[in-house]
């Protein structure tokens, strides 16, 4: 039985026919829609490499059935930059050396964007580490990742106060 869902992916509304109702959001993104920035690490909710935003909240896309997301807004790493302008979190990861091999980086960045929207981290590195603990990095780039999240938060706050 074919099942059709509507998703808005990186701002683009799409009607998608699912051949298999068991397909995960991760496999849909990577294999059907060719949005391969979202990575498959463990495929069982343990590494965070597949993190995307659904309706603004960070989730592990490997644990989410696409069929359950009809009508949702999905943001992947491909949807963060605006033209040539990087998102502040992307820019901060580059500035703070928040990666080595880069495999975990899209998930780290999406998780950081979600964390900032949650607004719980403040400027406490320990709290940032805790709130990013669902995102593993085999290269151990944790210090740079934490600095990048703090730096991105400062940038966004400064921009907010400039705009005020
Ligand atoms: Fe989804 Fe590891 S691939 S949590
Ligand atoms: Fe290599 Fe994180 S940068 S796994």
Please give a structural write-up.
With 164 residues, this protein is α+β, with helices and mostly antiparallel strands. 36% of the residues lie in helices and 15% in strands. The chain has a five-stranded mixed beta sheet with strand order 2-1-5-3-4, with helices on one face. The protein is globular and about 50 Å long. The protein has five helices and five strands; from the N terminus they run ββαβββαααα. The mean pLDDT is 95. It folds into two domains: 77 residues, Ubiquitin-like (UB roll); 72 residues, Orthogonal Bundle (DNA polymerase, domain 1). A hairpin with a 2-residue loop joins strand 3 and strand 4. The longest helix has 22 residues. It binds FE2/S2 (inorganic) cluster (FES) (2 copies).
Taken together, the total number of domains comes to: 2
Please identify the structural class as seen in this structure. Answer: alpha+beta
Oligomeric state: single chain
Share of β-strand residues: 15-25%
Topology:
Layout: E1 3-9, E2 12-18, H1 25-32, E3 51-54, E4 57-60, E5 73-75, H2 88-95, H3 105-118, H4 125-131, H5 142-163
Helix pairs in contact: 2-5
Bound molecules: FE2/S2 (inorganic) cluster (2 copies).
Give a short overview:
By secondary structure, this protein is α+β, with helices and mostly antiparallel strands. 36% of the residues lie in helices and 15% in strands.
